[in-house]
Amino acid sequence: MTGLVVAGLAGGMAVTNPGPEAYGDYAYRTLTQYVSDQLCDNLPPALGSMLGTSCEDLVQTTQVVTPQMILDRTQRYNLVLFSLYRTTLGLPVAGVLPTYQADTIGVFDRFFTVRVEQIDG
Question: pTM of the entire structure?
């Protein structure tokens, strides 16, 4: 009986292992929310008033990063029961801004970011 339950759980995990497109959308939404929450809330008031619009609106409309750009910088390790996505993001101006690497697990049609680390800068 236990073997049947384990096999059923493993089958369910394999079937609900989310794909790359879903990850691209998740990572884009997560990054956009992070930038809005962290960067916009910490802008100097003078810079905020120079923008002429709210920082959050600017982040939403400029789309400096797109889901496809994130996927282009992501390695997917499909481990059948779940997927591990390793994304490396940074600006192409080396040495000016740091580069970050994020590890995210996709399982049961959901994503869980388990590590974000600055890798240079």
Answer: 0.73
